[in-house]
Design a protein that fits this description.
- The complex is a heterodimer of chains A (160) and B (824).
- Helix content of chain A is 81%, strand content 0%.
- Chain A contains five helices and no strands.
- In chain A, helix 2 (32-56) runs antiparallel to helix 5.
- Chain B has 27 helices and 30 strands.
- In chain B, a hairpin with a 3-residue loop joins strand 29 and strand 30.
- Chain B is globular, with a radius of gyration of 25 Å.
- Classes of the chains: A mainly alpha (160), B alpha/beta (824).
Amino acid sequence: MKLDLAIEELHRSENHLVTVLMSMSDRHKADHEVFYVTRDMAKWSREHVVELARIGRDFGLDLDPEASEDPGLLASVRQRASELMGRRSTPGLLLLADLRHLYRETAGTSLDWEILAQSAQGAKEAELLELARRCHPESLRQARWANAHLKVAAPQVVAS
Amino acid sequence: MPRTDRIAEPWGTRTPYGPGETWPTRVDQYLADGLTEVDVDRWVQSATILHSNGDGLDIAVKDDRIVGVRGRAVDRVNHGRLGPKDLFGWQANNSPDRLTKPLIRRKGKLVETDWDTAMDAVAGRCRELLEEQGPSAISFYTTGQLFLEEYYTLGLIAHGGIGTNHVDGNTRLCTATAAAALKETFACDGQPGSYTDVDHADVIALYGHNMAETQTVLWTRVLDRLAGPNPPKVICVDPRETPVARAATVHLAPRPGTNVMLMNALLHEIITNGWIDREYIAAHTVGFDELEKQMKAYTPEVAAEVCDVPADRIREAARILGHAERLLSTVLQGFYQSHQASAAAVSVNNINVIRGMLGKPGCGILQMNGQPTAQNTRECGADGDLPAFRNWSNDAHITDLARIWNVDPMQIPHYSPPTHIMQQLRYIEEGSIRFLYVTATNPAVSLPELRRIRELLSQDRLFLVVQDIFLSETAQLADVVLPAATWGEKTGTFTNVDRTVHLSEKAVEPPGEARADLDILIDFAHRLGLEDKDGQPLVKWTDAEGAFEGWKECSRGRPCDYSGMSYDKLRGSSGIQWPCNDEHPDGTERIYVDGRFWAQPDYCESYGRDMVTGAPVEETEYKALNPTGRAVLKAAEYVAPHELPSQDFPFQLITGRTLYHFHTRTKTGRAPQLNAAAPEVWVEMSASDAADRGFAEGDLLEVATPRGRVRARLRVSGIRPGVLFLPFHYGYWDTKDGSQPKKKGEGRAANELTLTDWDPVSKQPIFKTAAARVERVSRGGTPAPAPTTTGSAPVTGAVPPTVGGDSARAEELVAGGTTVGGQA
C-alpha cells in the first residue's frame, strides 16, 4: 500500500500550487482579474493542504496543515514591481508564460488527485475517496481558468 | 387646476387595486411656463429615458421646442404615469450649453471645427492604426442610452467591419450581471417576467433593488397594490433603509459583500423544508442534486454570523418565499455591483426555478436594467456580445451572422469572449489599445478608481473620441468631440426590462450642427470605406427605419425576435413585447411557459461560466450537462470579499443613486427641479456610528480609501452600522474645476474611492465593498443636501423636508375624469 506516498505527493503539489498562484497573483497586481482570481483559487489549494494533512494522520503521515507561503515582503516587492511595470507591454508575455506554467501545474495536481481517487477506490478507503471527490473538481477548475484566461489574453499580446 | 408637487411626492397619488385587477390609469403631465394643452402645437410619441422602466409618453412641442411631457394612458407599462425625472428631465434638451459644433484638440486645447475635419481626423486615425497594428488597437465604449438602431449599426461596424473584439457599453456597470445571471440559469438573456406580474403576485421579493428610486413608476404600481385589498408581502434585501425597506414585510440588511451567503441560507431553508416543486424540478431542470448538496452547510445560523442578520429573520423571509403562490423576484445594483454579483443573482433565479414559479401570471423574475436602452445594448451586440443573442462559441451562429452581414465568418471576432471595458482599460494602460471611441457615456466619472481612469484617458498615445450632447468630464479629455442629438431630436426604438419595445419619434431639430448618433456612425463607416464581401457598403441603411428593418432580419428566429414589428405597428401602440413574429404578431407577454426554455445547446446564447473563476464552460461540457435545454440550477460557494475593513479603514463604503438624478447628472443636473432636490454630494452613516464619533447631521466629513478622498456633508440615515453610502452622480462639470478635482483631497465623485475589481463572471465592476475611513473636517450648520423623501431620509435632527414648490407641480388625471392632486 502506497496510499501514504500518494497523499504526501499531493500535499506537496497542492502546497506548491499555493506558492505558484500567490506569486503569480503578486506579479500581476496591475492585471486586476488575474490578481484576484488567482488569490481566490489559492484558497482552494490551501484548504486541500489542510484536508490532506488531516487525513494523512490516518495513514501515519505528519504533514503541515498550513501551506508554506512566501514572506510578505517578497509579495509586496512583486506587487510594487507589477504596478511600476503596468504601463509597459512586456508583462503581457510574462502573463502568457505564467498562465502556461499554471496550467501545467494544475493539470499535474489534477492527475495526482486522479491517482489518489483511483487508489482510494481500489483500497476501499471511503473517506479518502470522498475527499478526492470533493477536492478534485476544484483542481480542474483551476486548470480550466488557466486555459480560458490564456485564450483571452493571447490574441492581444501576440497579435498587437 | 389641482396639481401635485412631484418632488415632494415622487410616486404621486395612490390608485389602489386588488390582485388580478387592472392597474387604474392615471395620466401625469407637466408643461413648462404655465402653458396648457391648448398651447401645444403637437404631441410626439416616445418613451422615458432617464431610467430603465420604459414608460410611454408624448412629447409636447410648441414653436419647434419641447415644452413638456404627458404619460400615455394606453401604454402597458405605465398606464399614463410618469416619474419626477420624466416630468422635469426633458428641460436639459433645451440647455444653453449643449454641444453644437464638433471640437478638435489643437495645441492641447479643444477648439471648434467642422464635421469634415472632425470625421476625417477620427476615421483617419482609425485607418492608420488598422494598417499599423490591426483591429486589436481599436475599441468602442458605448452606453445604455442610445437607440436600438444605433447599437446595431455600431456592432456591425465594430464586429463586421473593423473586426475588433473590443466592444462594450456602460451597461457593464449596470446590467451586465442581469444578462450574465440569465445566461447562467437559462443559457440565454431575456427576462422571464412581465410588469403585470406585479398585478398578480402575492409575494414580491426585491434583492438589492431600491425600486422606489430606480423605477419610480413600477414602484407606484407596487404601492397601489399595497394600498389595495389583499396586498402582496414584500421582502427587501438592502443595507439601507430605503422606501422599499420601509414598505417591506421582512427587511434583511446584510453586510456588504455577503449576498451569496444570505441567498444560500434562504435556499437552504427552502430546500430543507421541502417548499419546492419536485415535479417541475424533475421535468425542467438540471443540477438540483448538486444544489441541494452544496446548500446543506449554509444554515441560517452560519449566515447570521457572516451577514450580521438575525437567523430568525432569514427563516421568516424563507418561509414567506417558500409559501408564496405567485412569486415575483426582482434584482438590481445591490447585487449586481457587489461582490460575487452573478452568483448572488443566479441564486435568485434558483429560488423561482425550484419553486416552479415561472411563465405564469405573478410568477416571474426581473433581473432589472438600470438604463433606458440597456436591453438593446445587450441584444444588438453593442456590449460586445453578438447580435440577437448569438453564441460566440458556436460556429454555426457565426456563419449565420456572416451570411446576414454578407461578410467572411473569419471577419467576425469570436476566438474569445468580448473585451469588457475593464479589460479594455488594461490594454489602454499597457498601450495596445490606442483608439477609444466613446458614445454617450462619461467614464471619467462613472468608472471605479477615477485617478487611474483619468490618467489612462489623458495619455498622448491614446486617441480618444467622445460623442455626447454636453462637454462632459470625459469629453474634456478627448482628442475629438462629436456633438450628438438626443432623445426627442432623432427617431429610434428601445426596449425596457420586460421586453416592451417603444418607438421614440423625432419631435424637434437638434441644436446647432449636432447630428443623430446613427448618422455619425454611418458617416464613420463610409469614411473608413467598410465594405461587405461583394464590395458593397457594409452598412446598407441610411436612416433609423432602415436600420430597424436590418435588425428585424438579424433577429428573425432568435429569442429576441422583432421580425413581426414595424415602425407603423409601434406607432400609437401600447408597446410590444418581443418575441414578436409571424407566430406571435402581437408580441409575447410571458416566456418560459410550461418550462420551455431557449437553452438547447445548438440554440442557446451561452454555455455558462464557472461561478467563481468566470472561466467559460466548453461546448462539450454543456452538451453533456444539459443536452435537452432545461433550466440550469447552479450552486455557488460563498467567497469572502476582497477588500475587508481594517483598523485603518474600519467602514465599508457603498455607492449608489438617488431618485432625482441619473448617472453623472449631465441631464438631471440641468433640470432645475431635480437639481434643487439633490444639489450636492452627501455621505450617509448610521445613527450609532455617528454617535460613537460625536458626528451630527450636516457635519462636513472626509471619506478616504487607499485610492482617494471625498468631502461630503453627513446625513445620519437608516443605513446599517459599519457602512457608509455615497451617491455616485456628482462629478466636476458643474464645478470650477472642470474635469477633475484641482486640489488633492477635495474630490466630489464617489468613484475617487472605489476599487478596481470586478465580478469574474459578468465582468461588472464592484462598487459596493470598499474599505474606508472617515474624519470630520468641520462641524455642520446646515443639514446635508440629501433628499428626505428617499433612502437618504434623516433619522435625527430637524431636517426640512424635500419639496419642489410651485415649479414642481404636475397634473395627475385619474381614470374617470377627475383631476386629483395633493395640494391645490
